[in-house]
Amino acid sequence: MKDFLKFTLATIVGIVLSGIVLFIIGIVSLAGMMSASQTETVVKDNSVMKLELNGTLLERVQETPLGSLSGMLTGSTAETYGLNDILASIQKAKENEKIKGIYIQANMLEAAPASLQAIRNALANFKESGKFIIAYGDNYTQGLYYLSSVADKVLLNPKGSIEWRGLASAPLFYKDMLAKLGIEMQVFKVGTYKSAVEPFIATEMSAANREQITSYIGSVWGQMLQGVSDSRKLSVDSLNAFADRMLMFYPAEESVKSGLADTLIYKNNVKDYIRRQMGIGEDDILRVLSLKQMVNVKRNVPKDKSGTIVAVYYASGTIVDQPTAMNMMDSELIIGDDVAKDLKKLQNDDDVKAVVLRVNSPGGSAYASEQIWHAVKELKAKKPVIVSMGDYAASGGYYISCEADTIVAEPTTLTGSIGIFGYIPNIKELTDKIGLKRDVVTTNKHADFGGELMRPMDSDEQALMQMAINEGYRNFVGRCADGRGTTPEEIEKIAEGRVWTGEEAVKIGLVDVLGGIDDAIAIAASKAGLDTYSLAPYPAQQGMFEAMFSGSLPNNDIQAGLLKSQLGEFYRPISFLNNLQHQDKIQARMPFELNIK
Q1: How far is CA 134 from CA 151, 203, 481, in A?
Q2: Catalytic center residues
Q3: DSSP conformational letter for 553
Q4: Claim: this prediction has a pTM higher than 0.70
């Protein structure tokens, strides 16, 4: 008995001491991370910026210790990058005389075509300085090859490959799965092309959906082909032929022979290759600056002292009425009330002379979209508002954009999708299967309507729901017509829920200018009559220390990271199905999962 008590006590003491040690290590590590994140990077001679891409790309990244812990628990080495940090770092590398070039290490990047195109354009602009870009990959993914092809030299591992096979869109359909569970999705929509509801009511694409998908992936592929063609001096026909041949399955020498790559080289020899490019010896110090270090490099430009500001407001993610435990697992959200309040503050800030609204959203709640639209309209009455579209600005994302003075989009931005839909799940069959019963007493005919119905909707309820959807669509079309200076009839010709690329949208009047966020900023300054100004991002991002003690850290970072590591590409659709009950029942958004590969 004594030995048992000794063993038990020793175990408890060991656990407590281990906890204390881990806590101290955590605090020390956290202090180190916070210190590193706030230390200015001093650039020395013979420096090269290393753009290592291995992870997920967002518009902006809020650095949190929980994000690091999530990676530790899942064993993932993948990073989360902010597009804003990458674009700013490339510009700083261009301006800094001590930085001689950029080295792209292409591993894997989860990013949409418009973001890849924005980075590629920034790299092309960097090359105008006369500095070099060298790209290396063990196995290039298609997206990262498109990005890396802008480099002066594309290096490939002798046993590596270049994925180049064209684009495909393969959306998932849930109808049969839901039927097996005993769930009927009662769907209402307006718009022939409003395909977001198809996964619930069909097992394959409609003809209209197939038409729009064929159109927009063709447009995106055309942009990728042209970009690689211009950089690699290869014809579009040749690139399509290479895609059909699937060169990724051939020996790496075939990629060099075809002109997709320049040299076969092992990773360990890349730095010596870069030294030769710089004209320095193998024993000379090559200083490599990571993206995190580049973020802390100060720009060598005079500081503006005018006091005037061009605000860049980031609206990125799904549009929701309020955050919930489930939707907070998304990395980015556009919370209707919060954005409306923020825009009101910018409206009343006399130092802010113009606002660039950076929209990267597939849409979401129709109600929240209306609140943001109203705030944009009021803001526009006092100062110029320019929208810069990212990967998506569709449905609700277009709703909040349409009132702007000027809309700027990347050629591969997905936009439009002007349409409304709604859904009410009927789970009667499921509850019958598991023996769950409900009895109800009501005062009025439809008092038990709403939520997950344990009965099918009756004809009156269906008519009322469709009436609300029709009204929402008319309102949406009207907002677009007013914002674009045309009539509802003209908007309806290009609405019906159809998704367009930026390249297509500029031809039909949904977008004014093709370009990136820098173009939008220049237009905003011009409309405000500004020669000098400072840029200010909104909403302000918290530092790691501030976020820790403000209670604003996303509590589901670890849970989301674990689920993503296990579910992979199925995380998004399963997360959506799990979140159904928390979503607004009337949605203005594009398909939930485009699944472009």
Answers
A1: 5, 45, 47
A2: 194, 395
A3: S
A4: yes
